[in-house]
Amino acid sequence: MVSDRSQALSAAAAGWRRAVLALGLFGVSWLFGARVSHAAQAPGGAEAKPAAKAAATAKGNLVFAARDHSFGSLLEGDEASFDFAFEVTGDGPVAIGRVQSTCGCTVPILEIGGQPYSFGTALPPGTKGFVRARVKTYDFVGAKSSQITVFSDGGESSIVLSISSFVRRFFVTEPEFVNLGEVLEGEKRKASVKVRTAEVPEFTIDGWGGARTRREVPLESNGKPKISEKEIRERELEDALSLQPEPRGVAVKYERSAPNEWTIEIEVDATVNSVGSFLHTLRFRTGAQRAFDLRVQGVVLPLVGTQPSPRLAFGLLRRNQAKELSIALVDYDPAVDVKLLSVSLATAELAPHLELGALPTAAKNDEAGRPTWPVSVTAKATLPAGAFKGLLELRTDHPKYPVIQIEVTGFVR
């Protein structure tokens, strides 16, 4: 009987467990369904978040009406510019970070609604603006091309705008530049130049002097000019027309040879210009509201010099390595037959390590027919490690150049 009662109680308990389990499963199913339904209906729920995220990351685009432009043929000194118009499209704003030009001849200017753009400002869809490519035609002659790159956070992060042109000269000079070649110290050398133009029926030369170096347009780090477009133009005109003081040792005369042609006589005085190469850029201002530049170059030779250079450079030497170099005394003075009297080292500490060759007994003519006196110098293997520097002295019978000092350098590793 007890056994029957125990069996009944066990069966009842099992029934209660099954009922509780069934009720729990129903509750979980109901709760999960309610949450899913609530999420689907709630405006700020899980299904609404992807749409909000997409809206937040939507990007706009800069759409340019054209990405390249050819100015065709331009005249030197003319002002030329082109506006690359654009519009912001798409679902989001666009901020332009900077603009960059590949050439100093092109200055990019960015405007929105007729006002200068503040870089980094977000431009909403529908905004219209332009990037103005302003081309400088001073000092830039012939075929020219350049690019402006626009950097933004739009769908296309960098956009390249290209421009091209051919700038022809307003004035033509013959020759294009003056090369006086070798001018002996104390001499004067002359050259004649023709300048003409077909752009105006006649012109005058109103003055001359040195040429002013053209100033670059100052730019901010994002490529924006620090001065206004008007100031840029005024600076260009000032740099193109202003005259600097006349270079020392240069004399100029000019006269009209035709209504639109002038002859210019240039004289360089080598008694004023120091020994060595020279380069003068002369500027001539005209009545045509333009100027032209003329380059004059050459080299002033001393009456007595050295070949191949005024220095004896051994360069890099390995330790325990000997090396021989040659240098020659050159007689440039046609009025004096120069003779090499002696060669010596003026630096005593180098004397044990540098060996001088035999003094030549007679001069040898170089390719130009000038008398030369070659001398050999050998850096011995005994030179200690490190840099060495000294002076070699050549004594001559020339009244102006009795002693010529030659710097000797090298490094032993």
Short description:
With 413 residues, the chain is mainly beta. Helix content is 15%, strand content 49%.
Features of the shown structure:
413 residues; disordered N terminus; 15% helix; mainly beta; five-stranded mixed β-sheet; Immunoglobulin-like; single chain; 3 domains
Write up this protein.
By secondary structure, the chain is mainly beta. The protein has three domains: 60-168, Immunoglobulin-like, CATH 2.60.40; 172-216 and 224-301, Immunoglobulin-like, CATH 2.60.40; 304-412, Immunoglobulin-like (Sandwich), CATH 2.60.40.10. Helices cover 15% and strands 49% of the residues. The protein contains three helices and 28 strands. The strands form six sheets. The protein has a five-stranded antiparallel beta sheet, covered by helices on one side. A five-stranded mixed beta sheet has the order 2-10-9-4-7, with no helix packed on it. It has a five-stranded mixed beta sheet with strand order 12-19-18-14-15, with no helix packed on it. A hairpin with a 5-residue loop joins strand 9 and strand 10 (158-168). The termini are far apart. Mean pLDDT is 85; it is low at 1-14 and 19-48.
Question: Which stretches are poorly predicted, pLDDT < 50 over at least 5 residues?
Answer: 1-14, 19-48
State the secondary-structure class: mainly beta
Quaternary organization = single chain
> Into which percentage range does the β-strand content fall?
over 45%
Number of self-contained structural domains: 3
Rg estimate, integer Å: 42 Å
Let me know the CATH homologous superfamily of the largest domain: Immunoglobulins
Overall, the morphology is flat
The helix fraction, in percent, is 10-25%
